[in-house]
Amino acid sequence: MKNLKINKNPEVDSKFQEYPKEIESKLNYLRSLIIETATENDGIAEIEETLKWGEPSYLTKHGSTLRMDWKEKSPEQYAIYFKCTSKLVPTFKTLYKGKFKFENNRAIIFRLDDSIPEAELKHCISMALTYHKIKHLPLLGA
């Protein structure tokens, strides 16, 4: 496994600690999938973990920003967010209809008791982390 450079903002850890314990573990799982996916992708040397709009966010040189969050107004769910003007979520809907629940063209929504299809989610994460290299390809090169 290669050495991925992770630029961490300490405010992200503080944000994770603000979530209810059950949510913190769910979001930490998503966080680990994002880092693992970036590590497994030879085209990614560095990833930045920061806060955008108060949400844990992940950026790469050639990628589209990934965000994740849980909202008190919908306590039974959490989500991973993508840039709504990108082709990402429309492509995910084509590839993984029935595997995920989507919110318009901006998010994959998870219920607290969902079993997450890890391989499929990592594929979505990989497409987001490399989006600017693949956005011209049909179905983002899938």
Note the total helix count.
5
Cross-sheet strand order for the largest sheet: 1-2-3-4-5-7-6
C-alpha termini separation: 23 Å
Kindly report the CATH topology: Aspartate Aminotransferase, domain 1
SSE pattern: EHHEEEEHEEHH
Helix content: 25-40%
Count of beta strands: 7
Roughly what fraction of the amino acids lie in strands?
A: 15-25%
Task: Give the integer mean of the pLDDT values.
Answer: 94
Task: Name the CATH architecture.
Answer: Alpha-Beta Complex
Q: How many structural domains?
A: 1
Shape: globular
Question: What is the subunit organization of this protein?
Answer: single chain
Structural class: alpha+beta
Question: Unreliable segments (pLDDT under 50, ≥5 consecutive)?
Answer: none
Largest sheet: 7 strands, mixed
Radius of gyration: 14 Å
Name of the CATH first level: Alpha Beta
Topology:
Blueprint lengths: L4 E4 L1 H9 L2 H20 L5 E7 L2 E5 L6 E5 L6 E5 L6 H8 L5 E3 L3 E5 L6 H12 L1 H4 L8
Parallel strand pairs: 1-2
Antiparallel strand pairs: 2-3, 3-4, 4-5, 5-7, 6-7
Helix pairs in contact: 2-4
